[in-house]
Give the backbone structure.
Amino acid sequence: MTENFKPKILIIIATSIVGGPGKGLFQFLSFAPKEQFDYLLCNFSVKGLDSGDFVREARKRSVNLHLFEQKYYYDPALISQGRELIRRHDFNIIQTHGHKANFIARFMKRSIQIPWLCFVHGWTDEDLKIRIYNRIDRWAIKGADRIVAVSEAMKDRLVKIGIPEQIITIIYNAIEDNGFYKEPPDLDLRKKFTYDDDTLLVGVIGRLSKEKGQRIFLDAWERVCKQETNIKALLIGDGPDREMLEKISAQKGLENKVIFLGHQLNPHPFYRILDLVVMPSLSEGLPNVPLEALAHNKPIVATSVGGTPEIIEDGKNGILVKPGDLESLSTAIIELLLNKEKRDSLSARGISTLYPKFSPENRARQILSLYQEMLS
């Protein structure tokens, strides 16, 4: 590329919430030097329906945003809309996040020969519809020129399904060093959930779906509550399993020990009031929860799935247990709740283990370097 060349990137994502991929996009657009590239961020809309938190957040941030108009989920008209957008604005790279964006990009590539960069964040399999989407996605991404995997574990999964190793680049998710751990907890918020000053709060943060393991957590929490009474668990997030999880909680008699708070656009005030974070996932790509917990200097018990062991070093900045192992999960939670000294020891090492590996500046440099490499 010439010295003054600014690549134009068409970024496509299909989401209504500000989840992990959405947070990563907003973060990248905030930290990447604006003089090095131009972009257009695309999402999807249906006439007459609310576009969701992601679009509201993009507009709040004054992001350069375009909405594809669709009549239904896999509307073939989206492909022609994408082609026309590329022709009109002369983009240099297509960048996609998620199965719908990947599907559209694969078909656009047939007639518009510009490089395609695909970010793979991970797959879930909670129901038949999602499993079908996953099969479509695994077919679609095989047309990408370059793929970003969010962890070593995700790279291994991609190689196993036939993606050439040489086109995969690992770029970790990142967390900003905003001095979260220096800010005092909101005591009024904490008092909403505690019996008294000695109550310990445990947070389980993430989408309420099978792969996140909240069902296993409730089984473990039932055991924990038999040994420690002055405790409460806050389940922060929403999803398809919420009704089922609430019923299980009630059946176990945990109504006073488990509080479902739904999706929180800003989870940081909740991290500050927690004494322990638990991540009981059965599968992951590279989750944001351990990054956020460490940035708040909070101790964490997490399952050793996906890229989590690339963030959490067992016994150093958190405790790792086997996924689905009820005994190990409940034992680790009880051990930390009963041992403040160990909680404090893990907390003290939290944020120091994040940087520079998981810094937004480092992630932005890697993505911009990949753009340059693709266009060289």
Notes: The chain has 14 helices and 13 strands. Residues 208 and 239 are 4 Å apart (CA to CA).
